[in-house]
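Mods, move this if it's the wrong board.
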Amino acid sequence: MESDNKRVYGLVKNKKSNVERNNIINYLKNHKPRCFITSSEISDFVIQDDHIVASSVTDLGHNTDVIMKIITLVLDKNASITFTEGNLCFIPEDKPSEIVPKIGRIYTMFRSNRSAIGLSVRKEKGLSIGRRPGKAKKLKLDQFEIEIIESLSQGVSKTELCKNINASRSTLNDWLKARGHFNIEKTYIHTDSS
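Not the wrong board. Structure tokens:
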């Protein structure tokens, strides 16, 4: 994988984390890292032709700008960096236009995994997932309540009313149900012809 003169560093968030160290050692198989460093130590340790191995892109940070700066720093030193999660490698020959999509893919994967873990923890604790049940206090059509009630009472069609208030028919029906106005009776003004 690496030539004999290339130094390999294991990048960890926490130098005391055995899990991170073992992930990196397992990935490298027979090649032992020179030492384990944190992202803040990259500029002090890494020189030309060195190789850094990290478990995840998030070991560099949780901000895309920070991650980009660190990867750029490594590549500017003519060193390379590999992330075992996703088997992603950045080498000095990579163009900046190739770096951003790679980071985006891994970061999206990380966020999805983190969300899934969070949801499973909430399920295990018996907590609800998603929006809280209950009625919304303020709805989009509340500002048109008087106009809606008067128009429907006068026999205006829902389609025409929706055009006037710039809302879809389903939004109007949902609002009528939520506010208890769904059965508004049409009242017609009768004139005596006598």
